[in-house]
Design brief:
single chain; about 150 residues; mainly alpha; two-stranded antiparallel ribbon; 7 helices; 2 strands; about 50% helix; elongated; disordered C terminus
Length: about 150
């Protein structure tokens, strides 16, 4: 009986393949993550607006997330009331991971600690400010004049 005629894997001393008996080289491990993740529960409407802006700006999401945090940290500490606007606070939210540059992540955490707020709250406010000031915001694209003409028809 030849080796090909026997039941496969019946002898545990034989290798599973017909190749050489040399041990296979280990694959190099994947690189460690150099960008920490921030887990945040973002309102779905705000997330939709941000995704639309990312597509319109033709940037990678991580680049836009870094820009969002940079712009937010560039402003001095401020206290708008309410901090998270009521228009987005009561929306259904979706939890996601956002990848930030390590230095920006650290600075955002330091600011959250100094303001006595969670990092997620600061990130949500940063996204809200960025979306509101963006010319590519889909909410701005809907003009009131267009809505009036649709109702007249």
């Amino acid at each position: 009986m030849t080796r090909s005629e026997r039941e496969p894997f019946t002898d545990t001393l034989e290798p599973f393949t017909n190749g050489s008996d040399a041990p296979a080289e280990e694959k190099p491990r994947s690189k460690p993550k150099i960008r920490p993740n921030l887990r945040c529960s973002m309102p779905k409407g705000l997330q939709f607006r941000l995704e639309h802006i990312i597509v319109e700006e033709r940037r990678l999401p991580s680049v836009v997330y870094d820009k969002v945090v940079e712009d937010f940290l560039a402003t001095s500490e401020y206290e708008p009331r309410p901090y998270i606007p009521t228009e987005i606070v009561h929306e259904d939210s979706e939890s996601r991971n956002y990848s930030l540059a390590p230095l920006l992540n650290q600075k955002l955490r330091e600011r959250a600690e100094s303001e006595g707020r969670s990092v997620q709250t600061l990130f949500m406010r940063a996204v809200y400010d960025y979306v509101r000031h963006s010319p590519d915001d889909p909410v701005k694209a809907q003009s009131p004049e267009r809505d009036d003409t649709e109702e007249a028809e």
